[in-house]
Amino acid sequence: MVNFFRPKKTTLTPQQLARACRRLGWIGLVLQIMLGVGPLLVVITQVLLNLGRWQMTSFSAGLWLAVVCLLLLLFSIYWCFRYISVARRLDSQDLRPAKSEVKRILSIGLLTNLIIMALSVLIALWRVSELTWKMLLLPQGATVISPGQTATTMTQGALITPSNMIAIHAMISAIAAGLVGAIVALILIAQVAKHRPPADAFS
Asked: What is the pLDDT of residues 141-150, one digit of tens each?
């Protein structure tokens, strides 16, 4: 009977790991760039709006967290490109890195994306809780009066605006980008950890 919880270890060569690093590095790079466009535009817009008012004190804690999360996401995108660079070094006998160095690089990538997901979830909870609290403060069946460009209009549920939905979508995209980076790092770490290198492979 096959034991799925104790898979048989196979031989790992530097070329096999190089192919995995190159393939998964490109996948992570492309997906994180695609998912990071939304959060990037939202954060830049919010920062420019606050700078335009010359009010640095108007930077909320949530916005600061979003800036930190965005910087980590940019670092993670660069780190996916680093996996591709590691693949080139693994293919070269002279430039081949030590196994401990490869593990360290993958661990940094995993930790970075875990922090991205944690910060994104924290920001999302903060924002959704704020919107929920505002909605709960409204009397049941109340109508919100909001000024329009030409006249004052009466709308239902005007507290939830398109900008709110865009911000929430950006937070979800950041969580997804962090998840992609974490999955890529975990797969590569598993490939290094579950295989036994031959005598001529890197150590």
From this structure: 555 555 554 4
pLDDT tens, 76-123? 999 999 999 988 888 877 788 888 888 899 999 999 999 999 998 988
- Chain centre distance of CA 201: 33
> Is 6 in contact with 75 (CB distance < 8 Å)?
no
| pTM for this predicted structure | 0.76
**From start to end of the chain, where are the E strands?**
144-147, 152-155
The span from the CA of 128 to the CA of 133, in Å, is 8
Q: Which residue has the tokens 């005007």?
A: 158
Residue 42, CA distances (Å) to 31, 125, 128 in order: 18, 17, 16
For 32, list phi and psi in degrees, rounded to 5.
-70, -35
As given in the structure block, the two tokens for residue 169 are 């979508």
Residue 126 burial (CB count, 10 A):
16
Residue 173: C-alpha distances to residues 7, 14, 32, 77, 122 (Å)? 34, 34, 9, 14, 14
